[in-house]
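Exercise 7b. Backbone tokens:
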């Protein structure tokens, strides 16, 4: 949505290039901020998980709410008209959309970083985590394929924004019970071995005796 229906639709070529530099630079910042914040050892892991869920939901509502406000100013028919004038970085009013695009990049990195941290916090069992990540990336790739097809069919920009916003907010609400009840400060080894064909010998670290592994 951001690439095709915001950057590609509204701005001219040189401004799209600038926007992309800002977008990916803000991803670096987002990953850095959330990566360090999620690993603050002085705060219990369960507390960090709850705080991350709240922060991510607030960012989803604020940033995509800003996107909704901007999206109301144009539609596909307007941007595809022959007399439509694309926005340049010298155009009056560019600063607001520029920051919106920066925040889109920041949010994307914050989302990915937090979701992987959530998955990693559920288990120390690499086999389970591989399944979690494989399922997540499979759904993500399927969604990307579908979204490009929807855009190719020229769905209204507002519909595409609404579907993104609803999926993001809705997925957090659906995931909330898991995050609130399943992410613990420590994961007992017996719990880690449930629903897995792994054994204690498979999952305990090098140099760990059995008792140490049970308390890890």
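Sequence design result:
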């Amino acid at each position: 949505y951001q690439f095709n229906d915001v950057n590609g639709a509204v701005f001219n070529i040189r401004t799209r290039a600038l926007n992309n530099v800002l977008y990916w630079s803000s991803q670096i910042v987002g990953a850095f901020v959330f990566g360090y914040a999620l690993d603050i050892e002085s705060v219990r892991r369960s507390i960090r998980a709850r705080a991350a869920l709240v922060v991510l939901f607030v960012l989803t509502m604020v940033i995509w709410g800003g996107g909704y406000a901007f999206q109301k100013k144009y539609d596909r028919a307007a941007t595809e008209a022959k007399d439509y004038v694309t926005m340049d970085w010298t155009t009056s009013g560019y600063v607001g959309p520029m920051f919106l695009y920066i925040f889109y990049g920041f949010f994307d990195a914050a989302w990915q970083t937090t979701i992987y941290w959530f998955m990693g916090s559920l288990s120390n069992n690499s086999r389970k985590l591989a399944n979690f990540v494989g399922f997540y990336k499979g759904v993500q790739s399927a969604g990307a394929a579908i979204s490009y097809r929807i855009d190719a069919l020229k769905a209204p920009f507002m519909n595409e924004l609404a579907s993104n916003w609803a999926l993001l907010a809705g997925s957090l609400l659906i995931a909330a019970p898991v995050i609130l009840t399943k992410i613990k400060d420590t994961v007992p080894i017996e719990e880690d071995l449930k629903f897995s064909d792994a054994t204690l010998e498979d999952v305990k670290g090098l140099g760990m005796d059995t008792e140490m592994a049970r308390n890890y």
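Instructor comment: Residues 95-122 form the longest helix (28 residues). The chain is about 75% helix and 0% strand.
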